[in-house]
Amino acid sequence: MSLKKKPVTGMKDISPREMEIRDYVIGLIKETYGKFGFSSIETPCVEHIENLSSKQGGENEKLIFKILKRGEKLKLESAQTELDLVDGGLRYDLTVPLSRYYSNNANDLPSPFKALQMGNVWRADRPQRGRYRQFMQCDIDILGEPTILAEIELILATSTLVGKLDFENFTIRINDRRILKAMAAYSGFSAESFDTVFIILDKMDKIGAEGVAEELIKEGFAQESVQKYLQLFAHVTDDLQGVRYLKETLEGYLDEKIAEDLETIIRSVEQVKSAKFKLVFDPTLVRGMSYYTGPIFEISIDGFGGSVGGGGRYDEMIGRFTGNQTPACGFSIGFERIVMLLLEKDYQVPKQGGKVAFLMEKGMPTEKMLEIFAEAEKRRQQGDSVSINMMKKNKKFQKEQLTNEGYTDIVEFFAR
What is the C-alpha separation between 360 and 372, in angstroms, rounded? Predict the structure, then answer.
């Protein structure tokens, strides 16, 4: 049996060109978020299956790569259910592991705790452009802060980072899960049906208002409720006036403070933001995770159909571990999608020094070779990146390759 050269479906090998961009973006993430007061942590890639299957991860819980028990614990003959065979899984996001980490270490952490976490996650999803089964996630979270200061800081930090990567005029959409629920209740939907309604509403950008209406009616919802629901969206603008309209219209269904807080978040970010982007109110924004309890947000970049980041408030998740409610809010950027877009536009990583190649002829005397190494070290201390290579017979082709790799200065050294 011959070994397979291609990676497993949904996984990918990473070229030096892409690694250069990935390493740069990771460094920029740590530098930017560090200036906003976030501290790096790391959690294991394997998580308890009970935590991953706690009905907090939405559709992602159907995509878990599950891990069999090992050794004597694996009893295939007597197993009756999957839980008899499985005790762990590869994490599908970083939020569940963060919640477990905080619950286990809260006494030793500051309050509020501002966490930065980067790492690979795994989902048994159908691969497509910008979506893999193994991919890097990058999250910032603020735990223990109940006020909208958390949302404002998260949006400012994330937008600052995206702006530093030369993405201009991107859009951050914002909504609140409690506004979604108030709009559904006002229209006559029962609380038990909210999840079904929101799953259909989440398709609005793909199938339009008419498509949403058709699917809701197919699900058996009353036509009167469906019409009342969609009329709300038809009258809502994507600015502060839209928030104020719903605040007035949903009186008795929506706490005024929820709308006022959302308005404050939007006004605050608009006044102090450093990057060029639009912050818009979008009452159709759902976010798939069922653990969100308050404001939710999502980033989109012109020219890319999907989102490149998102997050929101999830005040109830940590309480599932500790029994005590802990305010929590987070924002995740789509690391893989951002790297893909940077590659597609041939993004050049900023360099402080030059990229130099030394070509050394074969048969170089030891003393002269040591002089070349010393010269390379001198250039590196001056800020240059220096690669020493043996000179090939086809020197012209070798130089072309080095130029394509970004080497702007090629120096030749001969044995005589």
Answer: 8
